[in-house]
Amino acid sequence: MSVYQTRAETLIQALPYIQRFAGKTVVVKYGGSAMSDPALRAEVMKDLVLMQAVNVRPVLIHGGGPEIDRLMERVGLKPKKVDGMRVTDAETMELVEMALGALNKDLVAHIQAAGGKAVGLSGKDGGLFAAEKIEANGKDLGFVGRVSKVNPSVLATLTDAGYVPVISSIAVGEGGQTFNVNADLAAGTLAASLKAEKLVMMTDVEGVLSNYPDPKSLVSRMTPDEAKGMIKSGGADSGMIPKLQACLEALEGGSRSAHIVDGRKPHSLLIELFTDAGIGTMIVRF
Amino acid sequence: MSVYQTRAETLIQALPYIQRFAGKTVVVKYGGSAMSDPALRAEVMKDLVLMQAVNVRPVLIHGGGPEIDRLMERVGLKPKKVDGMRVTDAETMELVEMALGALNKDLVAHIQAAGGKAVGLSGKDGGLFAAEKIEANGKDLGFVGRVSKVNPSVLATLTDAGYVPVISSIAVGEGGQTFNVNADLAAGTLAASLKAEKLVMMTDVEGVLSNYPDPKSLVSRMTPDEAKGMIKSGGADSGMIPKLQACLEALEGGSRSAHIVDGRKPHSLLIELFTDAGIGTMIVRF
Amino acid sequence: MSVYQTRAETLIQALPYIQRFAGKTVVVKYGGSAMSDPALRAEVMKDLVLMQAVNVRPVLIHGGGPEIDRLMERVGLKPKKVDGMRVTDAETMELVEMALGALNKDLVAHIQAAGGKAVGLSGKDGGLFAAEKIEANGKDLGFVGRVSKVNPSVLATLTDAGYVPVISSIAVGEGGQTFNVNADLAAGTLAASLKAEKLVMMTDVEGVLSNYPDPKSLVSRMTPDEAKGMIKSGGADSGMIPKLQACLEALEGGSRSAHIVDGRKPHSLLIELFTDAGIGTMIVRF
Amino acid sequence: MSVYQTRAETLIQALPYIQRFAGKTVVVKYGGSAMSDPALRAEVMKDLVLMQAVNVRPVLIHGGGPEIDRLMERVGLKPKKVDGMRVTDAETMELVEMALGALNKDLVAHIQAAGGKAVGLSGKDGGLFAAEKIEANGKDLGFVGRVSKVNPSVLATLTDAGYVPVISSIAVGEGGQTFNVNADLAAGTLAASLKAEKLVMMTDVEGVLSNYPDPKSLVSRMTPDEAKGMIKSGGADSGMIPKLQACLEALEGGSRSAHIVDGRKPHSLLIELFTDAGIGTMIVRF
Amino acid sequence: MSVYQTRAETLIQALPYIQRFAGKTVVVKYGGSAMSDPALRAEVMKDLVLMQAVNVRPVLIHGGGPEIDRLMERVGLKPKKVDGMRVTDAETMELVEMALGALNKDLVAHIQAAGGKAVGLSGKDGGLFAAEKIEANGKDLGFVGRVSKVNPSVLATLTDAGYVPVISSIAVGEGGQTFNVNADLAAGTLAASLKAEKLVMMTDVEGVLSNYPDPKSLVSRMTPDEAKGMIKSGGADSGMIPKLQACLEALEGGSRSAHIVDGRKPHSLLIELFTDAGIGTMIVRF
Amino acid sequence: MSVYQTRAETLIQALPYIQRFAGKTVVVKYGGSAMSDPALRAEVMKDLVLMQAVNVRPVLIHGGGPEIDRLMERVGLKPKKVDGMRVTDAETMELVEMALGALNKDLVAHIQAAGGKAVGLSGKDGGLFAAEKIEANGKDLGFVGRVSKVNPSVLATLTDAGYVPVISSIAVGEGGQTFNVNADLAAGTLAASLKAEKLVMMTDVEGVLSNYPDPKSLVSRMTPDEAKGMIKSGGADSGMIPKLQACLEALEGGSRSAHIVDGRKPHSLLIELFTDAGIGTMIVRF
To answer: Which of A90, B247, E54, E233 has the most CB atoms around it within 10 Å of its CB?
Structure first.
């Protein structure tokens, strides 16, 4: 069989998956090496263009910790964190918005360059994300919040017209104050509000590990109850907790499945969507 | 690289082709072994479903010589041909219509079974094909004609709603008389009337051969003038002439390219559309 | 009063009926002499075109016993029936499909010739009819089934675009097997699934006869309960039973009335729809 | 053949005419006995409802000389005319508008009562008719004008939604002044502006008479040139001149035919449209 | 601050009101001095055009007592009233329709002249208002009725296309009889049937007065219960009763507020809608 | 006259302007004090919301020199300019994009807070702006370019859905390189590509001064030829040249007028659009 026939066979093997996800919304939380490594970044953006080309409706949401840290350092500020959350005063907030904004438009430009169509948004555009201030165990974090309300109409406008929305994790609080929100959690809230078919969290680990950090302890499939149990029991490491919480919120909001995948592997998105490979951890009701 | 990553790579390699043909109409003349071999038939129908899934708009047109011959034999009639054309009296015409009708619906059923959507038509449906009687060098052939007018509105209704039209080569003459028309030529007329992006003729040879029947003499690419020259000079064998004429009519009508491909090879349609393989003969303006 | 004024008066008398049925779906089971007599066939097709012209949405469904028998005889096969149902082996099934297919497209051609628009379908097109195998009192009949599911979306596509769907009584079973289904019963299932305003069964008798075969014993109007009673009590002759069952299914599915009319009388369809003539038997709730 | 079959036959005979005029606009100038005789008025309105039911798009325009005269007499004013045109001072203009307005809504009510849908307009609604003052051979007539511009968008809004527009011959001049316009001429201008398929002028004579008033001298068919010749030569009587001019304007504007019919005969509209009777005078290019 | 800056400030002050009423339907009962005074009439029509320009959807309904009286006097008839309602015999009914019709089209012409778009209707158009005969304490009033049913589809057709419907208070009873209906009450029924955001009754008093006719006793705001109490207790003067009843019907039908405003003051409509001025009496649930 | 009546009068005075600009696109180049002064910034954003509320379609484009300078200083870089253009190396380009991005979203947030709807874009979103590198009299400026192609489809998607597009002056060159483009010139190119009704350039001067910097020498109105003459003759000061060039490009592309207004004055946008005040300089063909 020629190489071309092999390629045609591969397309045919993808057909049932393409049919299953046609017209469906998939929220992708983007971050980690898949974002910071320039080659991987270009590849992930191409994966999104392919998804769009076969009628999946991807919605991308991203944070940008390293980009923010780098800008803070350039202006001579030292990032401060409490319980893993960035303490965000007014000056920091402005820098966060700048760093995420430039990153956001870079992702857009990659999608456009690959022949796709994208528009970059923050939670300010079209009133997408309203924020509510949060604290860390009683400690004030400044302008750090959670998404308290999603107004998704701007997303419908864009996806109906064939654009991939690329969203940075910024939201607007009372009085118009800008807030920094955790992108993992925002992804879960967004997936729930869109009743997305799938939420995919791209991370720098193999998935959920029952015996962290042993990669052989990868859990391929969990129920929501098992995920809740792992959070409660302390079995999940601290970086994994918001990811699991996001998955749980998506499933409660109506998503069919939520996935924690290893973004360090090329095309992890395509493999998750269009093959039968067990990749990372899938959380699903039954 | 894992097998799944290879598969993902293959999808990504197909992306530029998917983008190029999205929303475009491709007329496929279907016949030969690709139709008579049950395994190949099922595969070609799947290929059409994949095309549809990535937003190509395929329109299938087919004849059915062997099926007609078989039915004639069963009722004790002997097929008669003049210059390769079937002499078609009233009794034969009825059998032609029966044989093609059953074949047509079988193709439809295969597409539906693969998760696609299809409707089977003859040139009678929605007044699709008007016929004009033809002769063979002065000899009367009975109810044998050519498509003199295409009314494509029923095709637009169906393709807009996501159905693949599957068309048998039957047309309607003056006074409502049913006519048998050559499927190769009808495919060319149809592609021209739809200003299809591409016409693909599926045959049982490698393509156009400059030194027939030597497969090594395959011509990969021809201009319309070269194709006309080959017909005039007698360089084309008799089976190839109507195929070349169909290609020429499609190109004159506005198609960007016309292809004569080897339907005996699995997935020749997908390979032609979604890879850079030089398969069969492409006729293109420059 | 001139002949032309009489004609104008006639149109005005039809007006309330035209208004009542505008935009409504009417399923017509077509068969018997009205189909086998060429002159009547042409007239019935014209009647459908008139219905379409005054905004009724006719859907035609037909069998074709005599056409099937004729083809079987031509290939040297002898039709076999058990309890009025055709024993259908693979070879017969293919002939059934051929005979019905040619008949189907002939009806389409007549509608087109009368200035209407039509598309011919079998239960394979757009996955219209799913079949389930049936038996006759424990005896195996081969590929004989009943319509177990209707997927009417292809009909909506066609009627919205102004086409009369003309449907042959073929359905698809598990594994893609083609099945022969009783057209009377399929008409009832179809009317129910479309919540058609009316189901009209064209037959070769005056209607339901309380004292079969005395034409003077015609029952003009029955309730569903009366129809069920007649079936149970054995008061209905065997040919009438599936017709009554079809009417009952239509009414249970939401049709307002079901009619058994004498297709031997010219324009019985128009008379039923557009005049106050009591023609045949009407089954209606109250 | 039963009376019901005769009726069905009549419907079938009307079919080609129904098909020819489906979707076409027909402007009807309504007046004379067909309007003043209550029984005829009710019948004509029903004829319009039938036209609407078979997808013709009628647009009615009317004057109302007798109704105006009657109201003027009731308030003790004496109608004055110059060259057949009503001298219209401010007081008269108000009475004209009142009389036409009540008549207009009565026509609407008749259409609604017959199961149709109608909206009554004057040239003021939606800025339908702009007026330009005219004189009669140098004599001032007051607020008498001609339609200088048609803004037909309100008509499209109404006919697209299935309403018959019923229009009284009132127009608006500079400074918002109300003008009385000749309904015959306005009908011609309106037909031209709508590129109506047909203009039908309903009158109290048989049609154009070559030897007025001898009814045997009816001219069944004229070319525009013949109509112009008849006006120039003085062969047309004074009441016929504006009707002929209206027909000519319609034809110049793109109408296919213009008709002067005898409104005293019941159903003259339906006879003109849906039979092959030569009724009245048809003016047509060739 | 320059005069132009003041003007810009004023626009900005109106912005929240414009935003609040964008896309909302406001029914305006028009009458009194605001209608009989030509200068005020022109201004109110301009106010409607402004409302339309900022995306409010006004629907105007009017009576025309003085216009009717004037026409009756001109034909030598003496208006007769019982309990404030006009005794309406057939002759009077015709004059009512004439007077209202001319007034209606004059309002339309004013709106058009101000650059707006309007269509004048009576309750006959599109079957808008069905009437039911009423009596006055057992005394027969002739053709006087109340609106028993509203068919608002013609209004949706017109407002969707950007026209202001201007409606005269005429309705159609059984057998097609024309009825005179109280415009105040019809306005309430109409507002309820449209679930209008607001009903505004334009009158010749300051609003509801608790100590009639002392203008200082103006009640700025009432609940429905207070309004009902005032009617029951006899605290409302007779002219105010139908206005209060109309307001109550609107509120019961789903309107958010109902207003009785002083039409003698220029721009009372705009002031009510686009400023925070307490003008007239507002009836609102809480 | 009460204050509320004065306000209503003001709305009525604005009506002809609202009617004239309804549905029209107005491109606003935003910058200078109107942007850097927080109070003015909030007011201008409100002005845009008002424009949107009265059906004008504003498109905002902005630069951000001071914001860029400020960020550069914070990271210890010194802005360098040649002929008024910023020398832009890779590091600077990233800071430009960050500074403009944060500013862009702040403008969006202001519009949303005022009850409007907005989406912030750079020239990367939807492939809006393609760039072409430019030089300054032979000197290399790094990543400085001009907009060589506009792809406005994303703007149509957003304005059709009621969003104000807010655009930062960033474009994409060959190979995906980000370019800094002059916002004045980009505004002209954008207005031309959209065939905007109007281009309004907000600046920190009164308008075009014939005797710079004497404010009394304000030129209220110029023709394109006069504007070209002023550029050629050296009569325009250097800051004004790109603004005049932008105006000329807009007019050549089909805009009806181009305006240079004083953004320091509150509500200059509203005054320009909705009053007859001669504000700043209008460039118009005749």
So the answer is: B247
